[in-house]
Amino acid sequence: MARRKKTRREQEETLIDIVEARESAQSFVESNKNLLFGVLAAVILIAGGIFAYKQFYQLPREAEAGEQIFQAELQFERDSFQSALLNPGGGYLGFLDIIDSYGNTKVGNLANYYAGICYLNLGKFEAAESFLKDFDPAGRITPIMKWGALGDALSEQGKFELAADNYRKAANAGENEFLTPYYLKKLGLLHENQGDYQQALKAYQEIKSNFAQSIDGRTIDKFIANAETKLNQG
Predict the structure, then answer these.
(1) How many Å apart are CA 139 and CA 156, to the nearest integer?
(2) Can you tell me the distance from the alpha carbon of 77 to that of 98, in angstroms, rounded to the nearest whole number?
(3) Domain boundaries, the chain
(4) Taking the complete model, does pTM exceed 0.85, yes or no?
């Protein structure tokens, strides 16, 4: 169906509306010129402030923190966990001081994870839990690492239900051929130790279905058989 052409009068009315709208807008700008310029200046200042903050404060602090954490990471790799936390040597900061001094940087955030693992290995499980909770993971691997390590810290404190929740979070955080079946197996063993063979079997079967070629997957049949036997006996 053809569109009806506008009459001359309708065209004139439309043109009048457009002209009136333009004049109204110009009038508003003239009347509120100082306000609009003030808002524009504020936006420019905020944008400039954010840029300056990142360029002249945040980035240099990231670089400083990266230089400081190097020695602590070396001690961590040597399993010198106490030194890594407090005094890695060479005048460099340990993980705890890095967290205090550079806590709002990415390196400071990572130091929370390192500190949690250090305390986990030192048998100080409440401290491990605290620092691991403060760690904000990113990417595909570190979320698995955080939740799995937190599961370990909670399990060592006898908080088995919370530990199981965190092992499940680790397993669900992403598919990694090594870490995901590793924490699924820990989840199964925890359920088994609690006498919940149904849930243990479920975790083991998940490994067999999705990660049969992994290190844990190659030996999972015996865990499945053991859980099935205990389940049938119950």
Answers:
(1) 27
(2) 17
(3) 37-136, 140-234
(4) no
